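re: that complex we talked abt at group meeting.

here r the seqs, copy pasted straight from the sheet so there may be weird spacing, ignore it
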Amino acid sequence: MIAALQILVDAISLGSLYALATLGVGLVFGVLRLTNFAYGDFITVASYALIVPTAGATEIVIGRWPWPFLVTAAVGVVVIVSMTSEYLVFRPLRTAKPAVLMIGSFALGYIIQNIIILVYDGRPKAVGLWPDLGEAIVLSGLRVPKLELLTIVVTLVLVGALVLFLKVSPFGVQMRAASEDFRMARMLGVRANTVIGTALAISGFLAAVVSLLFLAQVGVMSFNMGVPLMLFAFVATVIGGMGSLTGALIGGYILGFASILLQALLPEDLRTFRDAFVFAVVIVILVVRPQGLLMPRAARERV
Amino acid sequence: MTKPLLQIDDVHVHYGRLAAVRGVSMRVDPGEIVCVVGPNGAGKSTTLLATVGVLSATRGAISIGGFPIAGMAPEKVAQLGISMVPEGRHIFGTLTVEENLRIGTYQRPDQRNVERELKRILDEFPVLAERRGTNAGLLSGGEQQQLAIGRALLTGAKILLVDEPSLGLAPMMIERVYDILTGLRDSRGITLLIVEESAERALDVADRIYVMRRGLVELAGTSSELEDGARLQQAYFGFEGEAEGIR
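got the structure back, here u go
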């Protein structure tokens, strides 16, 4: 019983992290039909914002600030990077085919990675962020690391805030309209640049939060640390149904659950190949429902 | 002579290398109902889309109240009192009826008028008032057409461009939609430019008619001038015979 609960908590926590990352991907896909492969590098940038580039030992600066300042700074840096990318890369390509946009985002991702290598050098860096969060809260045999709890709470709060924003604020309503039918929204006066800029800003915000939670977990940063997270986020978007935010959430949690369950249930010597099994599950889901679990009405009508 | 509200002057539009509209000129005066008729592929919708800035004209000038708008982004054109009710209605199906109606109001400079106008729309379209909170995707075709008209009006538009409003509607609903459209002129002084495939219906509602074919205006005139039908039919079907237009 305790073991099952333990697995459940772990799964919800990992699922939450994936779900946050997936939302960041899904929002931008919704308004821009852009599969943003630079998203993983936005995640990386947030972690690197915590340290200063030096030739010698890693020097943590922002990473030592009290958490409200630290989070604000990391989020700020990624939002700036994200919105600058929109201005310099995605805006000129906006009328191009989705495939061209996607390749543009690949190029952008490589540029960001190489800038990081250039400025910080390519070796992984050990950075202990918020070591206190490693402690566990023990509840009658159930061991919940504070970080897992934090991840779950942060996800709940951010998803709640995002839903509220999209449902209630005039801006959110315009964004939902634009995700459904961009051209029509523009004909009604919805400003394309503002909507796309906001989507990228929110996406950058989520990338920064994912980055900090992930860094606190693993304690090491490297120039391509965001890439696997981005891959999981994309797979989750595809499972959930491209363009549906609820689908994105569900996809993220499915991946989290699949990973943790396989970790617990696979025989010892197969555990190293856990991700291969996770992706096998993904393939099965896509064979059964190629359009994803939830398909947004917008995409259906467009066919 | 009154100043035209909308003037389209020698407009050309290309899809890639294909010329869809090849030098079209039209004018719509304040308070007029003007219909554009013509067979499929004549360039009617293309002309409207170029007018609101969704497609860019490769040549020619477009102006609203004398103000040039060719090449302007659609969201800018929407601020100038011109709004589109597109073919297929393009309702936001995942938004509620009220959210659909409000979409065009957020950028209006005259925010204080919005609530009053919204109330007026809901009074005049009781179906929409009844289903205010439901997802617009669940509305019937006729209800969606009314929603699209209400939504366009709430942008503060003085002139509506309406593309094939009867498409996919039951005959009774078509009549209702046309009653609403012609009513807009009488109750609010709204000017209308309507694309309609049926010449007969156009003769019924329009003050003036443009007949388009193959990207050109073949014939223009007031409804009474075109009433006998022979000239209109010839322009609509072309000189090659009638088989082409009958389908």
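couple things i noticed - Chain A touches chain B through 21 residues (CB under 8 Å). The beta strands of chain A are 51-52, 59-60, 125-126, 136-139, 142-145, 220-221.
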